[in-house]
Automatic annotation (TrEMBL):
Residues 452-554 form the Peptidase M1 alanyl aminopeptidase Ig-like fold domain. CDD domains: M1_APN. SUPFAM superfamilies: Leukotriene A4 hydrolase N-terminal domain (SSF63737), Metalloproteases ('zincins'), catalytic domain (SSF55486). This is Aminopeptidase N. Transmembrane segments: none annotated. It comes from Maribrevibacterium harenarium. Its EC number is 3.4.11.2. The keyword Signal does not apply. The keyword Disulfide bond does not apply. The gene is pepN.
């Protein structure tokens, strides 16, 4: 481990800033070798800091070269300032109010971390969240310092005709040397993490949106010229987002222009910089022949997410980074609700919950478990997590469920009006919800401070004489690192009762007769008695997944089948089908592990057969129900993870269902395999989803004709959804033709970088004789680029999904990943740190894999690590 162990930062140590920056004037002289940044900060002591003799300490980075510092018109001599070990600029004495001028030099072309100002395929761009701005110039780089920014860009107008920053363009001219000079002004005070600039040779499309109060806003989306044919869909998504935020939250856009720029090299998905969102091109560009249905929906959701941040994040921002979920949890909730409103609510909910239960629950059960508002961190970049985002969204959703849509809207209105222009905390958010509704959410707030996924156990009794039905609940949250004991949390359980014939039973609760209710659990143990219940019911619990918990009730397969067929709640219909599959798969996994021959009975056969026969059902829901729980989800559920046994069991069950229903899958495929002009709309997406699930089963049945259909679909598809589905099935089912199809896919799409990423993932996930040599070859392939996070993610996603290769008992797969992380850590610590996730699961692996996985981590720990990787590795081994 590195000698200087990086220190943790604690929420309890928060102090208001000693200085404020009222206005920030930046001048960037952009050049291919060095960029000169001149910063003029209009500063004063913070009256609420109460400390009057502190030095001025500005954040900086090792990659920032200081040229000179002046206060007002006085150039500071060397003895009046210094740079400390944390790369901060320390100025010993300052007046109460002053103009600080700082000149720095940076080299964006050598910036491989992709934080601060860097180059991506010929353009300059920035990424400042969370602490990237300090890699541009010295600053109070913390979200509670909000300033009005004016930014001037100076660049060669031939090479960089597009010069953008936040706010409105206010001036344009030419310098003495003939360079283009453009000045932007953003009237809204903002923290430095929302600053952005872009300089490049870009094309754009334009549109306008008229706000509810009648103002016209100009909308522009910029890309490199070769991608300009892929931005129309995002523009439509942006307009839908603007309208929805007005309709549902009463939030209007607040500048005259809104811009989005696509860049190829980006650590994350996208960034909500004020008035100038910057997107990973993979989250923005769409065209039917290169983009799958899933990607279309994801692009729409991300465009919405970043746009919604304009209020939930920018107008009202975070006081400190411990409050990250204040903006992220809330904004994810907003984008999920948007997609639910525009498309199928149930389908969207199923997808979001699947993701949460697979990935966030695993995080909550591992060494990096943390509450949605963490109490400490070493490197904040490590806390852009599924917990802060997805669980954070679930916590906001629970408030919505508890208060109802109207109460929630009253709360959000109060939150936005009370805190407009401020940097606030999660407590402030909850307080606004409380005040607007006259409720007390004190206990509810435990969701913000306790990590781990609560477990809820449910038992029941029916009294036929009295016609009463009792549900007994008990809850407990398992220990997580640093939190050995937990208190009971508030858990809203939305539920109903189902009769033997599948109908929704009426019941009386607290004097009210109804068929659906929300029970709010608050105790370790409690019981609820339902009256006037006409027969022994089957309970339908946690409808719509009304709380992020693991709920268990001992259902029989027949009861689950009843819910699957009849529950009025679509989410629970799906969930019941999944539960049947999970039960069967867990039994099969045990059989694989003990070397028994595998069971040949499955209740799913008759259930699926009925689904396939009923053409009236929503195809999208049928496709979801037919999809067996993933290896990743089954791993999360396992007490000890045996990836090979899980995969064997899953392949077995899939093959068994496929063989039993081969003809139904074939006819479903034929029925849905129709030609129509591609549209990413509801009906078509649903049809393609079911068609391609049917194809994968039909192929899994071993039918020769299915393979022929697959090859035809691959060759004749006019859209990426169908072409990719065929290819992915060929690879997944290990068909002989897979190599040929992969090669022809690359041949066809080698010019389309985003499509090549799909090829990289599938190639890396393919079972092949080459072993890890295959991965090495992919990383040497001309299409691979170590600078590009999407390429790295593509290959490593393929590798880690490749059960046979990655989880080889020799530990070679784990060592390979550890070696790659160590190398990458020198270039891009954020990406290196994220790649560690699969290795953090070592304690949950079966003993034969646990040891080699742990040694791979130890091998990493022995090297000289960034703060990012150090935090993950040291916490994983602790
Ligand atoms: N704030 C961005 C988002 O959600 C995520 C992000 C974080 C992007 C850090 C870049 C760097 O929406
Ligand atoms: Zn966000």
């Amino acid at each position: 481990m590195s000698e200087n162990k990086p220190a943790a930062i604690y929420l309890k140590d928060y102090r208001v800033p000693d200085f404020l920056i009222d206005r920030t004037e930046l001048v960037f002289d952009l050049d291919d070798s060095v960029t000169v940044v001149t910063s003029k900060l209009h500063m004063r002591r913070n009256p609420s800091a109460g400390r009057i003799t502190t030095p001025l300490v500005l954040d900086g980075g090792e990659d920032v070269k200081l040229i000179g510092v002046a206060i007002d018109n006085y150039t500071l001599p060397a003895e009046e300032y210094h740079i400390n070990a944390e790369h901060q600029l320390v100025i010993t004495a300052t007046p109460d109010q002053f103009l600080l001028t700082v000149e720095t030099v940076i080299e964006p072309q050598n910036n491989t971390r992709l934080e601060g100002l860097y180059r991506s395929s010929g353009m300059f761009c920035t990424q400042c969240e969370a602490e990237g701005f300090r890699h541009i110039t010295y600053y109070l780089d913390r979200p509670d310092v909000m300033s009005i920014f004016t930014t001037t860009l100076i660049a060669d107008g031939e090479k960089y005709p597009t010069l953008l920053s936040n706010g409105n363009e206010v001036e344009r001219g030419v310098s003495d040397e003939g360079k283009t000079i453009v000045t932007w002004h953003d009237p809204h005070p903002k923290p430095a993490y929302l600053f952005a600039l872009v300089a490049g040779n870009l094309q754009h499309i334009s549109d306008t949106f008229t706000t509810s109060s009648g103002r016209d806003v100009t909308l522009k989306i910029f890309t490199e010229p070769h991608n300009i044919d892929k931005v129309d869909y995002a523009m439509g998504a942006l307009k839908r987002s603007m309208k929805w935020d007005e309709d549902v939250y009463g939030r209007e856009y607040d500048l005259d222009i809104f811009m989005i720029v696509a860049v190829d090299d980006f650590n994350m998905g996208a960034m909500e910089n004020k008035g100038l969102n910057i997107f990973n091109s993979s989250c923005l560009l769409a065209r039917p022949d290169t983009t799958t249905d899933d990607a279309y929906l994801r692009i729409e959701a991300i465009v919405a997410h970043e746009y919604f941040h304009n209020w939930s994040g920018n107008r009202v921002t975070c006081r400190d980074w411990f409050q990250l979920s204040l903006k992220e949890g809330f904004t994810v909730f907003r984008d999920q609700s948007f997609s639910e409103d525009l498309h199928s609510e149930t389908v969207k909910r199923v997808e979001d919950v699947s993701f949460l239960r697979t990935a966030q629950f695993a995080e909550d059960a591992g060494p990096m478990a943390h509450p949605i508002r963490p109490a400490s961190y070493i490197e904040i970049s490590n806390f852009y997590t599924l917990t802060v985002y997805e669980k954070g969204s679930e916590v906001v959703r629970m408030i919505h469920t508890l208060l109802g849509a109207e109460g929630f809207r009253k709360g959000s209105d109060l939150y936005f009006s009370r805190h407009d222009g401020q940097a606030v905390t999660c407590d402030d958010f909850v307080k606004a919800m409380e005040d607007a509704n006259g409720v007390d959410l004190t206990q509810f707030k435990r969701w913000y401070s306790q990590a781990g996924t609560p477990r809820v156990q449910v038992t029941d009794e029916y009294d036929e004489q009295a016609q009463t039905y009792t549900l007994n609940f008990s809850q407990m949250t398992p220990a997580t690192p640093g939190q050995p004991t937990k208190l009971p949390v508030v858990i809203p359980v939305k539920m109903g009762l189902i009769g033997q014939d599948g109908s929704s039973l009426r019941f009386n609760l607290a004097g009210e007769t109804t068929t659906e209710t929300v029970i709010t659990l608050t105790q370790g143990e409690e019981s609820v008695v339902f009256e006037q219940v006409a027969e022994r019911p089957v309970p339908s619990l946690l409808r719509g997944f009304s709380a992020p918990v693991k709920l268990s009730y001992d259902y029989t397969t027949e009861q689950l089948a009843l819910l699957l067929a009849h529950d009025s709640d679509g989410f629970n219909r799906w969930n019941s089908g999944q539960q049947i599959a999970v039960n069967e798969l867990q039994a099969l996994i045990a059989q694989v592990q003990s070397g028994e021959s595998l069971n040949q009975e499955s209740a799913l056969v008759s259930g699926f057969s009925q689904l396939l026969a009923d053409e009236q059902l929503d195809s999208a829901m049928v496709a979801l129900i037919l999809t067996l729980p993933s290896v990743a989800y089954l791993s999360e559920l396992a007490e000890q993870i045996d990836p090979q046994a899980i995969k064997t069991a899953r392949d077995h069950l899939k093959g068994q269902i496929a063989k039993a229903l081969s003809e139904s899958f074939a006819s479903t495929y034929e029925r849905l395999n129709v030609q129509e002009a591609y549209q990413p709309n509801e009906a078509q997406i649903a049809r393609r989803a079911l068609k391609n699930v049917a194809l994968s089963y039909w192929v899994a049945s071993g039918d020769e004709q299915a393979q022929q259909a697959l090859v035809n679909q691959f060759r004749n598809a006019d859209n990426m959804t169908d072409q990719y589905a065929a290819l992915a099935t060929a690879v997944d089912q290990d068909l002989e033709v897979a190599d040929e199809l992969l090669a022809s896919f690359y041949e066809q799409w080698q010019q389309e970088s985003l499509v090549v990423n799909k090829w990289l993932t599938l190639s890396a996930s393919q079972t092949s004789a080459e072993g890890l040599g295959r991965i090495e070859r992919l990383m040497q392939h001309p299409s691979f680029d170590l600078k590009n996070p999407n390429k790295l993610r593509a290959v490593f996603a393929g590798l880690t999904q490749n059960v046979t290769l990655f989880h080889d008992a020799s530990g070679a797969g784990y060592r390979f990943l550890a070696d790659q992380i160590a190398v990458l850590d020198k270039r891009n610590p954020q990406i290196a740190s994220r790649l560690c996730t699969p290795l953090t699961r070592w304690r949950k692996m079966v003993p034969s894999l646990s040891d080699p996985m742990k040694s791979a981590l130890q091998q990493l720990a022995a090297g000289d690590l960034s703060k990012d990787v150090y935090e993950v590795v040291s916490k994983s081994l602790a």
